[in-house]
Amino acid sequence: MMSLSSDDISVDRFEKILEGTLKISNLEYGFQSYIKKVIVSQAVPKTSVLETMKCIFPTVPKDNLHCYLDLYLSHVRHQRNLHWVQCLLEMLIMLVKEGQLPAKPVCDAAVKVLDIRNEMICCQLLKMIRSIIGSVDYKGCRDLLISLLDNVDGLPPELPLTCRNALLTVQQTVSYILDRNASIMPTYVAGIELQKRYHNPAIKAHWVVLKDVERCIGSLKGVADLISGAGYVLFLPVVGVSSLHGLSWKLNPDSLVLPLKGLLPYKKVYLEPHMGLLRHLMFQPHSRELLWNIGGFVKQAKNSYIEELLGDLAILCMKVSEANHDPEFKSSTREFHIWNHFSAQMFQFCFFHNINFGPIIDHIFNKLLRLNLTKGRDYLMWSIFQYLSSNSQTKLQINFFRDYPPMINLLDLLYADQEPLPVPDIGKRSSVFKLAAASLWVYIERKAVTEKRFLSRPTPFVLQPQAEYLNKMVQSPPIVLNFSAVLFCNAFSSAYELCNSLLTLFAERCYNSTGVLSSLSEPCFTVGPTTPLPLAMLESLTAHAKFSVVNKLRQYILKVTDTPSSAETLKQCLPPALLECYARFLSFPEVEWVGFKTFLTQVVYNTVKTGSWHTLNALLELVSFRVHQHIPQAFRFKLLGNFNMVGAVVTIPHQLYVSIETAMLRLIATASTTDLHIQLAQYTNDPKQLFSQDSEECNKALVLAVAHTLHITGIDPTADNWLECFIKNIYTCTPHIWSSITLAHFPTSIQHCYSIASSGYNPADHKRMLVNRVEDELRKWRGTTNEADLMRNYQETDSANYCLCVLWRGLMETGQVNSLFLRILEHVPAKSLAAQLRLLVDYVVLEMSNNPQLVNNAVLKLNELVWKYNLFTLDRLILTMTLRWFDSKDLQTCFKMIQMLLLVPSDFRNRVNTFLTECSPFHWEHDDYYLKHMAYLRQFPEKFSFSGGMQSSLNFLPIYFGNVCLRFIPVLDLVVHRMLELMKELSNAAKSLEKLLEHTGSLYKFHDYPVTYLYTTLHYYERLLSDKHVLRKTLVSTILGAKSEFYPLSTYFTTEFCKYLSSMDSIGFQLSLQHCSVLLNKLAEESSSTSVFQDCNFDWRFFEFRSAATFALFSVAVECLAIPAAGGTVGGLLLESLLTRIVNTGANDESNLWERINSLAILLTSLPESFRLPLFDQVLKTLKNDMFVPSLFSIGTIHQVAGSKAGGLMALLHAYWQHSNIGTLSAMTQWIRSQVRPIIQTENQFIYFCHLVGPLFQRVHTEKPRLVVELVMEIYSLLQIIDQHNPFMSHADLICDLLYHIKYSYMGDVNKDEIEKIVSKLQPTLQTRLRYLASGSSDHPSAGHLSTSMSLVTQ
Fold first, then answer.
1. pLDDT at 1339
2. Integer angstrom CA distances of residue 569 from 563, 572, 613
3. 4-43 pLDDT, tens per residue?
């Protein structure tokens, strides 16, 4: 036979060979359709044809193979004899099976020539495809499936009967490709392609293949349910507790749906915009940043979703007003606070240009058409009026013709009264709100005139008297600052020429220099008013009017700031009324963000830049004692950086240095633990912007805050290496070490970092060097008689560091302080004196450890240095002693001295008792607070200059809000923590702490965050306090009991727990299921979206927490931590309470099961590990029982969870995963390896376990890709175990779908070799289905970004 190759056979020649080889006689061609059988061997020898094709096809280049196959099948298509067609196609089949021809091009060519109307050829081609498709790789099978569907979907719905066999063959072929048992391709891949093709309900497959398509897609619902989890859309975060970055809650920014990977047939609720979550956030105060991050909203970009959410919030407010309307419009009601929240949200989103006016009004109007809600109409008009009148502040673009008609329609709807509304009493606060609608109409009329627009209708009938009254006010504006003036400023705030003079009058009322001279503290005076504007008046101003007054106050501060500090200019210090009003303005939600931004970037920055110490000290007091709780996290650490810059200045007064440290301690103490690590990580490359260069105490306080954060949140400290850099940088700024008992309570990651940073430091060497050096300096002092030489020695050499130590020795020996020391210390810079104080503390404690009989005398002498000689303040002394590095005997001596300093001398106790009696922590309710505070300071003056020296007015800065009692509160917090740690070293430490709290605990009346402090303390020291029931009770009852005058214990806790705290019996409390049920009910109700600002007897703006949900969570957590029972017992009863409720709930019960599940999950993530262990123990117990109903594996609604203990447990664990920090989840693989793996034996156990961890993949892949690999490998290990114990698996398809989903969506080819080894050991059924796992993953039909994702996994 001749040798043929593609090199000498062109396509044209191949066509001629085909024509010659396949040629038949004309007679046979004419009757071939009627000839039953052709003797092929007589026409063309089959072997000859086959050999010819064998010579040609193997040598055809791959790029041209399709041309040759197209020619070949084109000739086949024109054949009319069935047997001849079969013969020709069998030749291709033989070539494929012998490996002479690849199957994929043959199938592609066959699909190209498919024609349903040519029944015979179509059937034979499809049969050929079915016989060789097994040789096609699964990606090729996927392409063939797509091509087949392209052919079928193009067919008309109605076809002739002659096509019946062809259609049946098509259906059989598609069914064969999709057949799981045939396993020619992963059903998961096929289902994803079909879902991608037909996900739009308007597009459906042709009826020929419709059932097969629907069956294939439907078979993936199991893995879709497994991945999406139970109740995913019903879980809600708590603003103020959940991270502001909201990674675990983040939605797809384009569609706002849950970011579930893969085009699986998820339930409809998962594919719709998650408006429930966004609505919940919109209803919560201070949620804007979290809402932005979760929704992926962009500043300066309009968003219709935000407009809809604001409309929903307005309707909620209207419903609250309908149920709880206060005709006096008092600020102490829930109605006022929720409308204030709506106004703030409107203003803030308006400021960032996220909303249009018209759509919001349309949304409100359309909903109110169907609801009879009118009682809140004045508040609604007030809020809308604030929005419109703020356009000059927010650069709001309003189209008159587009935006005002909806507003007029809303006015007509709400104000359809039969009689005109009377003009209210303008002397009352309520008049501002009752005239809001009329003010709005006057604004619209003036806007129409300004823009030269024609208003098509007159003033509404019901508003005519009020509108006429407002227009008449223009002729004779108010000249006295009362609510009439407020009303005028609001109504005409956008008309600068009308209200500017009155707004200026508001500002001048705060700083008018013609007022009476107000004494601050001798010898420093300031000119100006001491009584601030009433809070009720300030909060009645519109946002635009508030900003106008704030800007004028800021301009005055900047003017004073430009005046350098000197004895003559100190009389230009800021008036007290100005600072108090400025603080009140900054507490308003609508002013807060912009107000603090300008406060930081303009006021503080210019004050620091110009070195205006008197102004800076006033601002520091403002931060320390008025606004520290309101400062947004984004600005908190920037303020720290500014204050650190000032602290590094050598020449600042001692008083200013104390104020800086106080402000920094307050900022650190009130920083949110949720995102503290994220804020700190931003300063890794620029530590000087964050860490103090000289205040070891402030840096240590920051380390303690980080330790608390790591312990409470469970974040991963190894991420981005931020912790190691943090400790290294802070140690470089101020080298320091910790007491061993403090270090022992640090998370192990911090302990490791300090072991590296301070590896070369030896405390014994420091002790020896300090004692020897003080002795040397003492000999020099005694041996030198020339005062000039002594002055030079202690000012120009390093002997200056030991000046206080030598002074101390002289005081102990002679009972007096040499006046020369006081003259020397007058020239010592503030930060140098702080360094000397640390050495003095070290020296005194070391000396008293060796001479305990002198401790009493030493305490009295230290007290003299504080109150008689004023060398340093008591709070700085105790702070320094508390944070030193002492251990063992030295540590016990130190805290004995601290206790004696606070309890034995009467100086501090008298100050505390008087301050508690004369002043109130509710400063915003007392316009004469400043006068009372000054009266207290006259009785107990604050002194910051050394007695015996000349007191300079430059060294004495005005005092506005602070005193030693308030400065001592954060120090007392640290003392309590250190004394708790001391219980391991000293048996009577608990008794000492109780005694200390008994005498100083009343100071917690002025504590700004007592519940948060208690929560941190009880959480951080949970193991230490686990058996100290009495001490825990003392801590709670003392700290919160100090505020019982204003907030009874019932404000925080349940009735049963309040009785326990009030009783003398510390053991008699019995925890019950009923008590736990009450706790969960409380948390669930307060966390509800519609329960925001529940009625309470306090002002949320000045309360420790800004929302009922956050307050409820912390108070319930504190109660759980303080209950006299082990954490596991409390957690177990909480869990049992929920599961009992679930089991006893019927399928049609409309109870708040999901709210309870969500609440318990949040609570468990907020409590220590011991409280969470019962949840995982119950999971293990459920796995061991191995009794799961089939319907359990497809849950997602309350009706399916209700009544099922295993289902409820699964839902709770899913909620726990959702609320947990990624650092907590990192320990999960170890739990699986050590606890779960020994239990799993059956298929049902494995499936249940997969349902438990399924929802984790998406989140873990986003936040910590490496954890995905560990989790997946554990699943494969478990699969290998159950494969050995279960010869038959009823859920094999679900298992395979899950593993393919993991491969294509998360893993790719990572660990491919290990997975292949495991799969090769599985039973044949699983091996067959999973054989494609080792194939490449980059060709996944719906994962175009997979290569990027996998690079993260492998990092």
1. 46
2. 7, 6, 11
3. 444 456 667 777 776 666 555 555 555 555 554 444 444 4
* Interval 348-364 mean pLDDT: 84
Collapse the DSSP code of 519 into the 3-class scheme (helix H, G, I; strand E, B; otherwise coil) and give the result.
Answer: strand
d(CA 235, CA 238): 10
CA neighbor of 862 nearest in space, from 910, 821, 812: 812
Instruction: Tell me the CA distances in angstroms from 222 to 142, 414, 956, one per residue in order.
Output: 22, 51, 74
DSSP string, 49-109: HHHHHHHHGGGS-HHHHHHHHHHHHHHHHT---HHHHHHHHHHHHHHHHTTSS-HHHHHHH
Name the region of 252 (left: φ>0; alpha: ψ -120 to 50; beta: rest). Answer: beta
- Inter-residue contact 239 to 1110 (CB < 8 Å): yes
- Single out the residue of 1220, 1229, 1230, 1185 nearest to residue 1206, CA to CA: 1185
Written in H, E and C, the secondary structure of 453-513 is CCCCCCCCHHHHHHHHHHHHHCCCCCCCCCHHHHHHHHHCCCCHHHHHHHHHHHHHHHHCC
Q: Which amino acid is at 12?
A: D
d(CA 1318, CA 1273): 10
199-207 average pLDDT score? 83
In 3D space, the residue among 81, 86, 78, 87 whose CA is nearest the CA of residue 36 turns out to be: 81
d(CA 739, CA 974): 14
- CA dist., res. 1014 & res. 369, Å (int): 49
What's the confidence (pLDDT) of residue 458? Answer: 86
Task: Break the chain down into helix, strand, coil percent, rounded to 5.
Answer: 65, 0, 30
Q: Token digits for 1248?
A: 């249940």
CA distance 331 to 429: 10
Q: How many CB atoms lie within 10 A of CB 32?
A: 17
Query: Residue 1202 pLDDT more than 80?
Result: no
Q: Which of 185, 174, 180, 197 is nearest to 263 (CA)?
A: 197
Tokens of 384: 């809308």
- The yes-or-no verdict on residue 1016 having pLDDT over 90 is yes
The amino acid occupying position 768 is: R
What is the residue type of 1248?
Y
CA distance 1306 to 1284: 27
Residue 526 — φ and ψ, nearest 5°? -140, 155
Task: Say if CB 374 and CB 414 are below 8 A apart.
Answer: yes
- Bond prior to 237 in cis (omega within 30° of 0): no
Judge contact between 354 and 302, C-beta under 8 A.
yes
Cα–Cα distance list, 1261 to 1213, 1228, 1351 (Å): 18, 14, 12
Round to whole Å and give the CA distance between 820 and 822. 5
In contact, 319 and 564? CB cutoff 8 Å: no
Q: How far apart are CA 385 and CA 56, in angstroms?
A: 85
Closest C-alpha to 598, from 666, 671, 546, 534: 546
Residue 1103's closest CA among 915, 924, 973, 916?
924
d(CA 981, CA 891): 11
Which residues contact residue 1097 at a Cβ distance below 8 angstroms, ignoring those fewer than 6 apart?
332, 1047, 1051
CA distance 1271 to 1038: 46
Per residue in 476-491, pLDDT tens?
A: 888 888 999 999 998 8
The four Cα atoms 880, 883, 885, 890 give a dihedral, to 10 degrees, of 70
Tell me the Ramachandran region of residue 873: left when phi exceeds 0, alpha when psi lies from -120 to 50, beta otherwise.
beta
User: Which 3 state secondary structure label does DSSP give 517?
Assistant: strand
Tokens matching residue 908: 């501090």
Burial of 783 (0-12, 13-18, 19+ CB in 10 A): exposed
Rounded to the nearest angstrom, the gap between the alpha carbon of residue 1098 and the centroid of all alpha carbons in its chain is 26
Mean pLDDT of 335-352: 87
What single letter denotes the amino acid at residue 642? Answer: N
- Which residues are 524's β-sheet partners? 521
Sign of the CA dihedral running 894, 897, 899, 902: negative
